[in-house]
Amino acid sequence: MTSPEAEQxxxxxxxxxxxxxxxxxxxxxxxxxxxxxxxxxxxxEIAVETFRVEVENFSRLHHQKLGPMYARLDELDAExxxxxxxxxxxxxxxxxxxxxxxxxxxxxxxxxLFHGWMDGEGxxxxxxxxxxxxxxxxxxxxxxxxxxxxxxxxLARKAHPDLAQDDTERARREEFITRVxxxxxxxxxxxxxxxxxxxxxxxxxxxxGPSRAEELYARLEWLAQRKELLSLVAKxxxxxxxxxxxxxxxxxxxxxxxxxxEKLLADVSRRExxxxxxxx
Length: 280
Fold this sequence. Notes:
By secondary structure, the protein is an all-alpha fold. It has 11 helices and 2 strands; from the N terminus they run ααααββααααααα. It has helices at 4-21, 26-88, 91-102, 110-113, 125-131, 146-159, 167-185, 189-201, 213-239, 241-248, 253-279, and strands at 118-119, 122-123. The termini are far apart.
């Protein structure tokens, strides 16, 4: 049986031998693994958040530019169904007409949904102008610039809450990152620069001190769980309708919107011709 003194002597001997043979202690290797996992998670979170903002902005532009066309198509479908029901007198056609009309009845929050394109009374003048090929002010671009993306990534890497060593520091970082995310979502490059200056003046993040192996293993497990949750978020974004559309043209989403708009305008023309034929 080895005595405590002998164990201490053995440990001391190992500690002295380590610098000579260059072999790191197990805790040191574990610490490096934890730091690598932390950085990998942060990069993954940045990628997921970047894609989330792109999906959100593309969704907003999609509704602004195409919302009136979808509304016009729904209205034409209702008018066509009503005209067909009036011509045939068939109860089934009347039922279909009622269902089609119900889909275009005023709904609470419709103005917010279409971001100012229409309300319960119908299309706004800007929407009518667009549908009739008249000049109309394009929707405001909110996609962050390349510089804004660069600033956001730098701030996220420096101030990420996962680098906090205690609850107080984590709370400070979370509050700061919330403001960073909000500025990035608006594409506010000026505010991102101000936030970068603010962080530079704040308390420097403390370096992680030596940790026990049990704590490091627990940290790795938490990082793995966090990565799994982010993977679910990323999957939902990628499988969403807007996410799928955005992946079709990641480098030129505006052109994709133009192509969809052209198709919808052609659909509107066909519906109008069909309605005119029924009403003739």
